[in-house]
User: Fold this.
Amino acid sequence: MMKFKKIVVALLIVIPIAVSVMYYASAGANSSRAPVAKVNGSVITSQEFESELEEQRATVIDYFYRLNGAEYGKNFWKTDVNGDNPEDTAKMWALKEIIRFKIELELAQQHGLIQGTSYDDLLQEMDKENKRRIAAVNARETIYGPVQLDESTFMNYYLSKLRTQLKEKLSEVELRVTEAELKQHYELVKDTLFTKEDRIRFQKIAVSYKENVQSSTNNPKKPLTKKLMDSIKISLDKGKEMDETVRELQGQNEAIAVRYTEEEFNSDTASTYFKSQAVLYSVLTDSLEANQVSSVLDETMQSEYVLVKVVERETGGYKSFDENERNVWKNYVDTTYGAYLDKLIREAKVEINESNYKSMPIH
Assistant:
C-alpha cells in the first residue's frame, strides 16, 4: 500500500490532477478489458495502458542510463536507482500520456469531431483507415505513408489530424483571439519566427576534390585539396585579397581548377543555399560578420572545399504582420491550445484501479 501511495504522490507532482483510487471489483489485469484507470469516466483498459507502456519503454531505459548510468539488464525494472524506480516511472509517464490523449478525445467528441473516446473506438477507426488505404492502393490512388498502419503509427497520425481540426473548432469560441491580441503575440514571437534573412554579399573560393573515376578506396585528391585550401586560408588571414590569391594560384599551377565568385545571400536565395550548400548556409546565417574569412568548409554534396569572405552584411528585419497574419494565428493557437489542455488536465477526475495498475507488467 505504501508503495502505491508513492506512485500517486509522484503522479500528482507531474500532473496535478484530482486522482483517487478505485477499489471496485474487476477482471484481472491480464484481461485486455480490465480497467487500469478512468479519466472523467472514460476507461483506460489494460490493453491500452500496455500499448503506451511499450511506447515509453525505450525512453525510460535511456532516461535512467543518462541520469544515473543505470545499464539495462536483469531486474532493471524492479531495481531502485537513487530513489527512483524504472517501472514506476514508466507507468507514471504512460498514464500521463494517456490522460492527455483522453482529454483531447473528450474535447473532440464535445465538438462533434468523433463519436467515441474508448480504446475500441480508436481500433475501429484504425481498421477503417487501413481498409481505406488498401482500397486506394487497389484503385491506383496516391496514399502517404505505409499501406497498413500499425497501432503506434496510427495513433500519431490520427491524433495529429484530429488536433488540427480541434484547434480550428476551439478557435471559434474557447481560443478566439482579437486582432489586437494577435498583433501583441506577433511582437512576442517575431524575433524567433518572423525574421527575414540578412542580405550578405560575399566572395567565395571553391576547389573541387571530386575524382573523375569512382573508386572504393579513399579519395587521394581530397587531402591534397584540403592542404591547398589551408594554405589559402593562411594567406587570407594575413590580409591578402581573395582575387589576388586566386590569380597567383592559377599562375603557379594551371591544372588547379580554383573557382572565384562574388555572390549574394538573401531571402530569395537562402533556400537554394540551404538545399545545395548546407554548411555554407549555416556559417552565413550563424556567425560570419563583415570582413571575416570563414574556416575551410567541406561541402560534401558538391565534393568541394570552400572559403568565403563576407564583404557586406545588412540586417534583414522582420516579415510584416499583415503578410503573415495566418501564421501568427497558427502559432497563437498552438500556444494557447497547449495551455488550455493543461488546464483541463489539472481539472480532470482521474481514478486509478490500484490492483490492476500495480500488476501491469513491463518487460
Remarks:
- The first strand starts at residue 18 and ends at 22.
